[in-house]
Amino acid sequence: MKNIFVQGPIPSAFIAESIQQHSHKRKIGAHSIFLGQVREDEGVIAIEYTAYEAMALEQMHQIREEIIPKYGLTCMHVYHSLGSVNTGDLCLFVFTSAPHRKAAMAACEEVVERIKAELPIWGKEILSDDTIQWKQNT
Predict the structure, then answer these.
(1) Helix residue ranges per DSSP H, 8-100
(2) Based on the structure, what is the number of domains in the chain?
(3) Pseudo-torsion of CA 119, 84, 33, 110, nearest 10°?
C-alpha cells in the first residue's frame, strides 16, 4: 500500500515535480488535479491533522482499486497532510490521469468526495484566540 501522508503542508514544488514526471507517459490525454488549501474562516489560522493511519491507508487502497478500473485511469496519486498546516497552505493533493479529460475529471472528483467521507482523518482548527475546535467536513 502506498503511503498518502506527508508531514506538514504539501509543497508546490512537489506538485510541479509530480506533474513533470508524467510527461513521458504518451497515452495520457488529460490530468485532473484537486488542491485542498486551508482557508481562513471565522478566525482559523491553522489546522492540525491527525489520522488513524493504518485504517486510512487500507481504505485509500480500496478506493484506488475501485476508481482506477472504473474510469480507465492511467494513474492516480493522493497526498494528505498530517500535522499543522497554516491557512493558505496546501493540505490535499489528488492527481488523476487518463486517456480522456472526462474520465480524469470525474475520477478526481469522486476520489476527493470519498476521502472526505470515508477516510479516518480529522482536523482540529486552531483559532486566532488560541482556542481549538474540531473541523466539520462539508
Answers:
(1) 12-20, 53-71
(2) 1
(3) 20
pTM of the model: 0.94
Classify residue 80: in a domain, yes or no.
Answer: yes
Residue 14: pLDDT over 80: yes
Let me know if residue 138 belongs to a domain: no
Q: Give which of 4, 23, 19 is closest to 82, Cα–Cα.
A: 4
Q: Are 64 and 94 in contact (CB under 8 A)?
A: no
Rg (CA), the chain: 16
Report phi then psi at 50, rounded to 5. -130, 165
98, 29 contact by CB (below 8 A): yes
Residue 131's pLDDT band, with cuts at 50, 70 and 90, is confident
Burial of 122 (0-12, 13-18, 19+ CB in 10 A): middle
Give the CATH number, domain containing residue 58.
Answer: 3.90.1170.40
Per residue in 57-73, is it b (16+ CB within 10 Å) or e — as a string?
bebbeebbeebbeebeb
Domain range enclosing 26: 5-37+53-121
